[in-house]
Amino acid sequence: MPIGDVRCRAMEKVIKAGLVSCSNAIYGCKQSTTYGNQLQSHEKVCVFAPCSCPIKDCNYIGFYKDLINHFRATHKVSPGDINSFVFDRPVIFGLDLDSSDKMVIFVEEKQGNLFVVQGFIGSHGVYATVSHIAPMVPEVRKFSCSLARLRPYSTLRLGLEVKNIQKLRSQEEQPQEDFLLIPSYMVNGDHMKMEISIGDKNDYTHI
Fold this sequence. Notes:
With 207 residues, the chain is mainly beta. 10% of the residues lie in helices and 38% in strands. The protein contains two helices and 13 strands; from the N terminus they run αββββαβββββββββ. The protein has helices at 9-17, 64-74, and strands at residues 19-21, 32-34, 51-52, 61-62, 82-85, 91-96, 103-108, 114-122, 125-133, 143-151, 154-165, 180-183, 191-200.
């Protein structure tokens, strides 16, 4: 029978003291925490937070290191769409603005880290972002990059901190920070020649 709004403090203590598994257990986390502190502590920094495959129409979601294995086994390098690279070595690529996703994927040759360059068309030009597919937690390595728009007689270059994201932004989600704004006069047609170099967190942010 209902007992109204009377709290059972003894039962509250029992529940708070009980151990529960992390919500990311299905992705491999073996951590258990007390019910009362679960959201406030462990799950905010859990390295097993799920990440989505950046390939269109691929529904894979998992721990970011498992995502790397999935990507290597399932999606092959295809220059133009999926490019391999080595840290701190510049790569020239093309960003097609007439495609629906307006993105280029980069896979690091040795470690397999996944990076995505996305273009967002705005009123002032194209906003280009660089993202690392991984959770934003202290345990995961951080990166920076040099991103440039190349033209025959001019180059626009910026050093950026690479953001860790668990899934790609939609084209309707225009970035508010950490982007290279390519002004309209430097956007000729639907294809832009670009250059990127990716390295450790502080390697390129001084540019």
